[in-house]
Amino acid sequence: MFVGRILYVLGILFVFVSVIVLIMMLFTNKGNMLTPVFTLLNGFIAIGIGDVVIDLNYKKRRDRSKE
After folding, report:
1. 32-60: per-residue pLDDT in tens?
2. Residue ranges of the domains in the chain?
3. 3-state class (DSSP) for residue 33
């Protein structure tokens, strides 16, 4: 459960930072916009994997308590 939560929080952090960097790059017209886009995608992947890990651990605990 801890790993899932850490991945979820890191994903949110990556998305937040990459959106801020993308907005800043739009106003400055400098730099490569490819890096923040890949950071944004990486953040979404981390959020998704963290959510899956949290759900699997929750289902495993729920199944153990039924027995």
Report:
1. 888 889 999 999 999 999 999 999 999 98
2. 2-66
3. coil
